[in-house]
Specification:
The chain is mostly helical and 165 residues long. The chain has 6 helices and 2 strands. It folds into 2 domains: 88 residues, no CATH class; 39 residues, no CATH class.
Length: 165
């Protein structure tokens, strides 16, 4: 067996229970900026099974790191009202509020953030540096596991401290 899964001991496997591992999904999707498709490829490599990007998206919604799509109630049921057509408006080719360069988000997305906006790599939404960073490696996955373990140990220590008091 080769690849990422074989390199890690079974009891330290960061991919076990990935669907409910909020720390793992947050690290990959939010902190490392990986797409659902890239996360699915990483998990598929590590587990040897086929994972669809929609499965990753569903897991991210279930653990609360991504909002579920908004539901439209009744909009499709109503027929369009006949009336005057709106006057044509020239729309710029690029929305002035959209980033022009690299779309890597810097800063805390829960507070203030911005896009990198460096020159994009051809065929990518990111600059060369962030494009390489978006591709996960075994070291990235081991770092994710280490941080998840640290967070779990911290929660357990806090829980034990509260039980003692």
């Amino acid at each position: 067996m080769d690849g990422l899964h074989a390199a890690l001991p079974a009891d330290d496997d960061p991919l076990s229970g990935w669907q409910t591992n909020r720390d793992l999904l947050t690290m990959l999707h939010i902190d490392n900026g990986m797409s659902f498709a890239n996360i699915a490829l990483l998990i598929a490599e590590g587990t040897g099974s086929i994972i669809a990007p929609d499965d990753v998206k569903t897991a991210c919604i279930a653990v609360g790191i991504v909002a579920a799509p908004a539901q439209r109630h009744g909009a499709a049921d109503k027929p369009a009202r006949p009336g005057r057509k709106a006057p044509a408006v020239d729309v710029p080719a690029v929305d002035p509020h959209e980033p022009v360069g690299c779309r890597w988000i810097t800063g805390d997305i829960r507070e203030t953030w911005s896009y990198c906006q460096a020159q994009q790599r051809e065929g990518s939404s990111y600059c060369e540096h962030h494009h390489r960073k978006s591709r996960a490696t075994r070291a990235t996955l081991e770092e994710v596991q280490r941080r998840a373990d640290e967070a779990r140990l911290k929660r357990e220590a806090t829980s034990q401290a509260l039980k003692v008091n």
